[in-house]
């Protein structure tokens, strides 16, 4: 059962006083023409700006390339989906019947887009400073974990370099399945490496994202990093 948008607004500290605008931010395009796509577009731009501004202040010695990689790490879909789950956002999403049946309220891409749409709604309703405060509150934990001294290489690259250092065979990534509509798919990938008895699996809204998750799980199993 879909929970009322007003309940979520209260949980978030009523960041948007326009109840209709806030509910629109929770309405997926599968519901029809009146949906959150335009708010998502706006929120994506505001999120990128606010995070870039915070990184500029937080890391005064960082180079442009380093800040770009840090920003990409923070604003990526996986991070947004994780924040959405912290909000329990899936319980409040307005989805069409097809998306409801296929479990769209659990899908990373839909959750991530909805976070951006909420940011867009807060901006339109309260202005950029309110949107900034909302973003920095919900992204605080992820921003505080950033460290310029930690490698910014992606999981697949780190796994490949680790295996090469051990003179082991490189990983083999296999597509297990693809679920969902063509415009909103979930990819399932299996990663097999010789140093592990069992393969690791990952899923995501793109094949690359799923491969990265499978690689991270392999690194974790190999004791090369803590859980994602």
TrEMBL record:
Taxonomy, superkingdom: Bacteria
Annotated localization: Cytoplasm
Binding positions for Mg(2+) per the UniProt entry: 40, 113, 116
Major subcellular site: cytoplasm
Chain residue ranges for the region called Disordered: 200-228
EC number(s) from the headed UniProt entry: 3.1.26.3
SMART domains the UniProt entry points to: DSRM (SM00358), RIBOc (SM00535)
Keywords recorded for this protein, A-Z: Cytoplasm, Endonuclease, Hydrolase, Magnesium, Metal-binding, mRNA processing, Nuclease, RNA-binding, rRNA processing, rRNA-binding, tRNA processing
Cofactor(s) named in the record: Mg(2+)
Active site residues according to the UniProt entry: 44, 116
Residue ranges of domain RNase III in the record: 5-127
Reaction equations catalysed: Endonucleolytic cleavage to 5'-phosphomonoester
Domain DRBM, residue spans: 154-224
InterPro entries xrefs: dsRBD_dom, RNase_III, RNase_III_dom
Gene Ontology MF term list: ribonuclease III activity
Record text on subunit structure and interactions: Homodimer.
PANTHER family named in the record: RIBONUCLEASE 3, RIBONUCLEASE III
Annotated function: Digests double-stranded RNA. Involved in the processing of primary rRNA transcript to yield the immediate precursors to the large and small rRNAs (23S and 16S). Processes some mRNAs, and tRNAs when they are encoded in the rRNA operon. Processes pre-crRNA and tracrRNA of type II CRISPR loci if present in the organism.
Family in the record: Belongs to the ribonuclease III family.
Protein name (record): Ribonuclease 3
Organism phylogeny: Bacteria, Pseudomonadati, Pseudomonadota, Gammaproteobacteria, Oceanospirillales
